[in-house]
Amino acid sequence: MKTIFIDCSYLADHPELNTGIQRVVRKTVANFKTLAPGEWDIQLVKISNGQFSLLQESDLYPKAELPAAQAGQSLPFKVRLSNYLRGVYQAGREFVSAVCGHHKGVRHFLYAPKNQLGLGMFVHWLLLKPARAAVRLVRRPAAQPSSSDIDRVQRGDVLLLLDSTWYSNIWPSVEAAKAQGASVTAVIYDLIPITHSQFCDDFLAKVFKGWFHDSVAYVDRYIGISQTVQRDLESFMNRELGTQALRDKQFDYFLLGGDIAERTVTATVDMRPELQRAFDGGSCYLIVSTVEPRKNHVFLLDTFENLWRDSAQDVRLIIVGRPGWKVDALLERIRCHPELGRRLYYFSDLDDREVGYSYDNAKALVFPSIVEGFGLPILESLNRGLPVLASDTPVHREVGGEQVGYFSLDDHKSLLRWIETFEAEGIPEALQVEPGFYGMTWLQSSQMLFDKVVRD
């Protein structure tokens, strides 16, 4: 039996994250295990520095989301303690950053991944690693997977680089897998740190470009998450490396799924009261994305401020997404906004169930992103029956087609006119989502990727 080894390295180290890439990894892993026919086995792995360790699917989720919590049982003390300490750690980082005036160098140190010089590295090596070693000595568990797991790889196997491993030293592990006879496929989410580096952390832009140059020696097939990404990737790599260097490479794409939590679990039972209040009354326009410059929250907030200034209507903007980088001024603007808690709401930590509730209770999604690899909230919204207004970009048109209302980013009035039309005349028939509408589901998305991964 041949094996697809799925790299989940970053998510295994950061299971609390739930943005686009983490969602792709979790959904793909879950579906590959049901899709794989008899001749394929699925194994999850963590790869770094020549090591190749097996993972369990439960390693990809926060402990608080394990079945005991879903069943309403009390979480074990060690899980509650872990959650508490994580909260203290995150709050402490934000406090130190604020005291230092959000200095760029300080933030780099505080938020660097644990395999880069910074606070995370010191905490990992000086606190967490010794503590875990002590626990293992006390409990004397069975032997854990180690670098010897690379010996499991056989000729004909596939190593799927699905996770975000740009910061990690993965290539010795990949080289070892290839030496055992595996082929290597890399999923490419976008080229934004290269093509639009002004929107990214400087260090990310540097390591991301280096990752691509290094990958040429090891990756056999590159698969983009949209046809737009595939075309951009081929153009970039041909320009940077030349056609000769890529003569044996394969390029392809698949599309992401748009179904998140089922509608049946988004009832108001146990929903946080402040989220219910946000959607209780008024026309609620929703944006779901990490708060970072390219997502263009500033454009959106400017537009709604123009609307609020000229109208007393209860038209609300609800922002959902964890804070990213280069948005300190925007976050301060939101926190101090006179409409916060009235016609402006911000939630940074919603889970899939609460995001589903938000989709189900909004009037429309507004997605003004400047550049995307896909634009997953567009498809998620349509699959929930929620009309969508999105910036007019090639990938948004690829994902949304004629079902979406597009606006220009060169003119705030372009979006403003759409909202005024929605409020005065209702949702135009062309943008109403028919009952039972479904774009690509995660099962279909995973099948599309699976077929291309195993293709000879």
Automatic annotation (TrEMBL):
InterPro entries: Glyco_trans_1. Coiled coil: none annotated. Residues 284-406 form the Glycosyl transferase family domain. Pfam families: Glycos_transf_1 (PF00534). PANTHER family: GLYCOSYLTRANSFERASE WBBK-RELATED (PTHR46401), MANNOSYLTRANSFERASE A (PTHR46401:SF9). This is Glycosyltransferase family 4 protein.
